[in-house]
Specification:
Distance between the termini: 14 Å
Mean pLDDT: 94
Order of helices and strands: EHEHEHHEEHHEHEEHEHEHEHEHEHHHH
Number of strands: 13
CATH superfamily of the largest domain: Glycogen Phosphorylase B
Strand order of the largest sheet: 3-2-1-4-5-6-7
Largest sheet: 7 strands, parallel
Shape: globular
Strand content: 5-15%
CATH architecture of the largest domain: 3-Layer(aba) Sandwich
CATH topology of the largest domain: Rossmann fold
Radius of gyration: 21 Å
Number of helices: 16
Low-confidence stretches: none
Structural class: alpha/beta
C-alpha cells in the first residue's frame, strides 16, 4: 500500500508538525507533499522522508512569505499527481485536502482547523494586516471559501483535533467528522518544585493575544515569563514592565523545565486544541485559560486549572487573583492524570480505527489485517 501525506506547509515545528510525526510513525514508508519546505527547521524524523513541494515552493521568497501565495495553493494542490497512491492523508490547517485522488484510493483528512483566516476569524486577520491585506482579503476570500467547501467533498473521512473544530467542520464544510485528539508523550514531562513566575508560551501573534498577558501582569506586578517569538515581540517589549521577562526560544529540556517550574500557565488564545496546556498539566502545573476553544476539552475547571470568560486584560487580571486563592487546593497529580488522557496510544488507536472504517465504507470490504499491522 503506497501512502502519501499532504501537509499544508513545513516551515516550523509546531503542533501540527508534531502530529505529522505521529502519523509518520504509523506509516513509515509514506511520502510527504507540501507547499513550502524548510528542512533546516524540521525534525530529523521529517527530514529523513521524501518531501515533494508544489510549485509554490519554487516561487520567490516562498519560505518567508508563503502566506502571500495562498490564492495559488488550490491550483497547486490540484496539479499534484497522486495516481500511484492507495491511501492519501491530508493534514489541514492551510490548503491540503484539495488534492485529486484516484476514485478507488482512500483519502482521509486530519483537520487541525478549517482556514480560520477566511472563516470565523476573517475579520481579525483582515484588520491586523497591512493596507494591502485589508484591500485584497475581501477580494480573495469569497473564492477561497467556495473552493474550501467544494474540496471538502474530496475527503472520504475527516478527523478533527477537538470537538470545537468538529463544529467548525460541520458549519463551514457541511461534513461530519470524528474527533481524534492530538497526542503528547507524557513520559517526556515530570513535575518539579514550582517557582514564583507565571508562564506564557507560544507564537507572539495577534490571535494568541499575548498582549492581554502583558497588560494584566503589568497591572498586577506579578512575575511573568514569556517564551516565544513572532511579529508582536518588539511591540510587547515596549509596553512590558520590569516584572515581565522575554525569552525568544528554549531548547526542549529548558522548555520542559519552564513548564514544570511555572506557578501556572497563562493561556490567552482561543485555540483549536492547544498542546501546550496539556504538556504543562503533564508537568504537574495548573492552567489559567480563556474559556473558549480547545482548552475547554483539555483543562478541568477547579481541578487542573481555572477559566476566565472574557478575552480582556481586566478579566485575566481578576482571574489571576482568583487563581492565587485557589492554588493551595491544587493537586499536581490531578493535572498529570488529565494529561494522560491525550496519549500516543489513544491517538494511534483512534486514527487507525477511523482509517479502517473509511476503507471499509469505500470498498465495502474490511481492511486487510496485514495493512493495519504494518501501519502500526
Amino acid at each position: 500500500m503506497r501512502v502519501a501525506i499532504i501537509h499544508y506547509w513545513l516551515v516550523a515545528m509546531r503542533g501540527g508538525e508534531r502530529v505529522l510525526e505521529q502519523i509518520l510513525d504509523l506509516y513509515p514508508q509514506a511520502d510527504i507533499f507540501t507547499h513550502v519546505y524548510d528542512p533546516t527547521r524540521m525534525s530529523a524524523k521529517i527530514r529523513e522522508r521524501k518531501v515533494t513541494t508544489t510549485f509554490i515552493g519554487r516561487l520567490p521568497f516562498a519560505k518567508e512569505q508563503y502566506q502571500k501565495y495562498l490564492p495559488l495553493m488550490p491550483h497547486a494542490l490540484e496539479l499534484l499527481d497522486l495516481s500511484a497512491y492507495d491511501l492519501v492523508i491530508s493534514c489541514e490547517a492551510g490548503p491540503a485536502k484539495g488534492v485529486i485522488t484516484r476514485p478507488d484510493a482512500l483519502h482521509v483528512t486530519y483537520c487541525h482547523s478549517p482556514m480560520r483566516y477566511i472563516w470565523d476569524q476573517y475579520g481579525q486577520y483582515r484588520d491586523a494586516g497591512g493596507l494591502l491585506t485589508r484591500w485584497t482579503m475581501p477580494l480573495l476570500a469569497p473564492g477561497l471559501r467556495r473552493w474550501d467547501m467544494v474540496s471538502a467533498s474530496r475527503s472520504d473521512a475527516i478527523m478533527t483535533n477537538s470537538h470545537f473544530v468538529r463544529k467548525r467542520v460541520a458549519k463551514f464544510w457541511g461534513r461530519e467528522a470524528s474527533v481524534v485528539y492530538p497526542p503528547i508523550d507524557a513520559s517526556l514531562f515530570a513535575p518539579a518544585e514550582p517557582e514564583d513566575a507565571y508562564l506564557w508560551a507560544g507564537q507572539l501573534v495577534p490571535y494568541k493575544r499575548p498582549d492581554l498577558a502583558v497588560e494584566a501582569f503589568r497591572r498586577n506586578g506579578l512575575p511573568l515569563h514569556i517564551v516565544g517569538d513572532g511579529p508582536m515581540r518588539a511591540q510587547l517589549q515596549r509596553i512590558a514592565s520590569p516584572n515581565i521577562r522575554f525569552t525568544e526560544r528554549l531548547d526542549f529540556d529548558a522548555l520542559r523545565k519552564a513548564y514544570a517550574t511555572a506557578r501556572a500557565l497563562v493561556f490567552t488564545a482561543e485555540e483549536d486544541f492547544g498542546m501546550i496546556p496539556v504538556e504543562v498539566q503533564a508537568s504537574g502545573r495548573p492552567v489559567l485559560a480563556y474559556g473558549r476553544g480547545g482548552a475547554l476539552e483539555t483543562v478541568v475547571e477547579g481541578r487542573t486549572g481555572l477559566f476566565y470568560r472574557e478575552q480582556t486584560a481586566a478579566a485575566l487580571e481578576a482571574a489571576v487573583a482568583t487563581l492565587e486563592d485557589w492554588l493551595p487546593r491544587f493537586d499536581p497529580a490531578d493535572a498529570v492524570a488529565q494529561a494522560a488522557r491525550f496519549s500516543v496510544a489513544n491517538f494511534r488507536a483512534g486514527f487507525l480505527a477511523t482509517v479502517a472504517r473509511a476503507h471499509q465504507q469505500l470498498n465495502q470490504s474490511p481492511v486487510p489485517a496485514a495493512s493495519l499491522e504494518a501501519a502500526a
